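Lab notebook, bench 4. Still working through the backlog of constructs that have no structural model yet. Next entry is a single chain of 232 residues. Request: give me the structure tokens for it.
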Amino acid sequence: GGQLRMACKPPAKRSLEGWVEWAARELERRGVVLHSGARVDSVPEDEERPDFVIVATGALPAAPSIPGIEGDNVVEARDVLLGRAETGDEAIILGSGYVGMETADFLIARGSDVTLLEARSNPPINRMTAHGYWLSKRLADSGGKLLLGAEVLAVEPDAVIYRQDGEKKSVGSAGTTVVVALGAKPNAGLAGVLEREGVPFKVVGDASDPRRLLDAVHEGDAAGRAIQVSHG
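Model written out:
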């Protein structure tokens, strides 16, 4: 499921959960063996050595260099959506792309007060699309705020310091949770292991470049079909 396990949690996105369940059923039906919780940092030299590897290890949250970003009051958006991190009654979300806005939607549905800080001067999500319109509407209807042109300078235990229109400002109070939703970066470390060990491989999906579900599915399908052709 990868990113889909997180993406299907916000309101109006639950249908994506069905795709993950379908994929899991298909793997079982086709006899695919799954090994979870296993870290790969070397390649065996025996009969288990792979002929080819498709690296579909997904993406990791981007880790911006902001003072205080490692504080106890800071959590990752994916951890919030997956229930691995709790937030208080007030949440400040850094970033208003799809992950940020959908996390806001998720928290609003649970009664939280939400403020989003976005460095760009224009909203990253087009409000003229159906999904963008409803995300923006539910944020506005809840009393939530989207602060544009807000450059985050530091995260403190009870506030986020930012610069907007050349003025230094702060938002937050005691007990505020800061949620980081500042994009993703490819998790392609396995590719380096395979290259070092001389094993042919192909990097697909978010492990190559974080994008949409359809891109990952098409690239994975193309990689699998290419192996079938090369091996007859």
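Notes after review: The radius of gyration is 20 Å. Residues 7 and 13 are 7 Å apart (CA to CA). Flag for follow-up if needed.
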